[in-house]
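Q: Give me a backbone?
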Amino acid sequence: MKKTLGKVYLVGAGPGDPGLMTIKGKALLENADVVIYDALVSESILGMINPDAQKINAGKRRGRHSKLQSETTNLLIEKAKENAVVVRLKGGDPFIFGRGGEEMQDLIEAGIPVEVVPGITSGIAAPAYEGIPLTHRNYSSSVTFVTGHEAVGKYRPQVNWRAIAEGSETIVIYMGIHNLSHIVSELVAAGLDSQTPIALIRWGTRSDSEAMIGVLATIVEEMKARDFSAPAIAVIGNVVSLHSILSVSCPNLVI
């Protein structure tokens, strides 16, 4: 008799605070047979996993890649052939710079049932916890989410920072800390005022989160002086100036 294939769930773990994990995602972790998780998933989220489940770390961090993307996909296919519920647990949201779309395509091509369970992305949650609204009627009516770390051989050679500088009032940059000097130079060269406010937020929504507030002209030197490092996001735009007012009512509490 032909064995029934299991199902892979691409689950967004959210930005770190366990209170921001979706109910559906939590239920899947509690009932999973196998969980393949990323490096940025917090310990408190990992603590929700069924204690009898097989847990596999497939995390990627700069300079310390534990598995190639192809290896992770092959692992998902292999585990779905042997188990009913396989969870691919990804930090934030699987479809926001999480390569979830690529994994879903590969699974579908392999004939593996797959479903995506969205998560709250750090580009939205981290600024909110710091009292930075990405839109505001008096400051910003547009937001652009962009990666500061581009894949080799991608469909275009580079981000069009000029178009972004000219076309968006708030810019949220993922994975841009290592390239921040270049990014800032490109944005200023494109006409963005060097006194434009910028926030760097590390481990946003977690109890050990850290934020730097500055302006484009000096943020790179200040970041180096403070030894501020990834993983972090950058928020650029006049909405950042609201941090000094709104952060008073946005204490970083983790339930």
Remarks:
- The chain has nine helices and twelve strands.
- The chain has a mean pLDDT of 90.
- The first helix runs from residue 23 to 31.
